[in-house]
Amino acid sequence: MVDIREINEKIQQESAFIELLNLELGKVIVGQKYMLDRLLIGLLSNGHLLLEGVPGLAKTLAIKSLSSAIQAKFSRLQFTPDLLPADLVGTMIYSQKQEQFTVRKGPLFANFILADEINRAPAKVQSALLEAMQERQVTIGEETFKLEEPFLVLATQNPIEQEGTYPLPEAQLDRFMMKVVIGYPTKEEERLIVRQNLAQEFPKIKEVIHKDTIVKARAAVRDVYMDEKIEKYILDIVFATRFPKENNLRKLENLISYGGSPRASINLALAAKAYAFIKRRGYVIPEDVRAISHDVLRHRIGLTYEAEAENISTDDVINEVLNIVEVP
To answer: What class does CATH assign to 224-324?
Structure first.
């Protein structure tokens, strides 16, 4: 028998740092609670995030502040069409003094990577980054180097300018745990942002937790209790995107070209556990699954030309699935 009370007490102790982290990040990030929560879910689930939003929505500031709060190494990569894989991973440099080749590591050797405008880089560069994301290692010459934990990639896409871009293939998109769409702040939030930027001194982020706390918390996230009914609910959602006709979703049959992969099920379960953890709860409830379903599934569902002609988005499809699938 699983003792829920015991797990709950343990998770409440282990997740105490979340409040501390949110307070520290709140000094410089106004609003964007949704984005910060998703960043923490990715960090605690050992997953990576793809962020879509117009410029100036504090994407760089958020991940830079998070790395400062846990004293981690941060690298920002501005992806451009002339970028080479060696610009990311590093290369072999010949030393005349030593008369041999030595390894010069690239900016990918950090804990937090901001890959700005990932769709501006050619396929070779994208695959070099995605290999590091998946394998957690980099090969330079004949040497293989393990990347230091925690390792989080936050890639951004600009939804406005699509000229001169290389869209990520579906198989590569699937490697991102979540695709998070962020919008503009409210008028009140923007007033605070303007005041903060006009002030004499911009707030500085202090280190409030250590990197080891995150690594330890990742193990605790997996201890969050998930009932068989919740597991079934997750599988029902994913299977409804694959076989809509068999799940009373006949009207979606001609709108979906392909549904969520097994990674969708894995990441839905992991993200739901991480969401429960940041809410300081030791068990997963259906609302946790519903809260992160759009982020985990929106880049894993393919739409037909018919859906695009009718101006139907993947979010519309997910809403329909969540409305039909029975909640336990």
So the answer is: mainly alpha
